[in-house]
Write a structure and sequence with these properties.
The structure holds two protein chains of two kinds.
Chain A: E1 5-7, E2 10-14, E3 19-24, E4 29-37, E5 43-50, E6 55-58, E7 61-66, E8 71-76, E9 85-93, E10 101-103, E11 107-112
Chain B: E1 5-7, E2 10-13, E3 19-24, E4 31-38, E5 42-50, E6 53-56, E7 65-71, E8 74-79, E9 88-95, E10 106-107, E11 111-115
Parallel strand pairs in B: 2-11
Antiparallel strand pairs in B: 1-3, 3-8, 4-5, 4-9, 5-6, 7-8, 9-10, 9-11
Classes of the chains: A mainly beta, B mainly beta.
Chain lengths: 113, 116
């Protein structure tokens, strides 16, 4: 089963608005990562947050992590049409599995002009 | 510009035929992952290798799927015989092992497989 469950499954916003996606996971983690997938393409790594971090920024991206609730959120500010894609969270476990990641179900984001 | 490459990009085949998908990881990466993506199941990990040795292939149907790394620059995923339910996009990803990375993975463009 998927470690991460994303919410919402689909999100449609207007260009310039902020987009927030949430991810919940089940077991303790070493880190949590967010990836983007454009239609028909492979996944691209966006940002990584370690289990001892609470917030991280990268350009227009802001990620938060609440390990007590086993949840994370990805905020994209001032969205653009080019941000239209699916976004996945992925968790790296604490023990075993080396650098194996468990991916969530994804949020489909559509940014309309 | 280092990137993971996969061939073929698209494959249409008939049920029962053998399918071989190839992946060239980023030079220097010692960990290779194979995933399958479908609308119904999402992204599933099939198998992964470190330093060419299989670490985990529990996600792979053993009776028809096999994954190998003949050398550090080539990973292969074979399906024999193929079935319509194998239709999916197959992704290869590469990365560095624990101690040298935090687990970021770099994905190839995928092979879209259609089994008729």
């Amino acid at each position: 089963s998927q470690q991460g469950e994303e919410d919402p499954q689909a999100l449609s916003i207007q260009e310039g608005e902020n987009a927030t996606m949430n991810c919940s996971y089940k077991t303790s983690i070493n880190n949590l990562q967010w990836y983007r997938q454009n239609s028909g393409r492979g996944l691209v790594h966006l940002i990584l947050i370690r289990s001892n971090e609470r917030e991280k920024h990268s350009g227009r991206l802001r990620v938060t992590l609440d390990t007590s609730k086993k949840s994370s959120s990805l905020l994209i500010t001032a969205s653009r049409a080019a941000d239209t894609a699916s976004y996945f969270c992925a968790t790296r476990g604490l023990t075993g599995g080396g650098n194996k990641l468990t991916f969530g179900t994804g949020t489909q984001l559509k940014v309309e002009l | 510009d280092a990137r993971v490459t996969q061939t073929p990009r698209d494959k249409v085949t008939e049920m029962g035929q053998e399918v071989t998908m190839r992946c060239q990881p980023i030079l220097g990466h010692n960990t290779v992952f194979w995933y399958r993506q479908t609308m119904k199941q999402g992204l599933e990990l099939l198998a992964y290798f470190r330093n060419r040795a299989p670490l985990d292939d529990s996600g792979m149907p053993k009776d028809r799927f096999s994954a190998e790394m003949p050398d550090a620059t080539l990973a292969t995923l074979k399906i024999q015989p193929s079935e319509p339910r194998d239709s999916a996009v197959y992704f290869c990803a590469s990365g560095l092992g624990p101690g040298t990375s935090e687990g970021e993975q770099f994905f190839g463009p995928g092979t879209r497989l259609t089994v008729l």
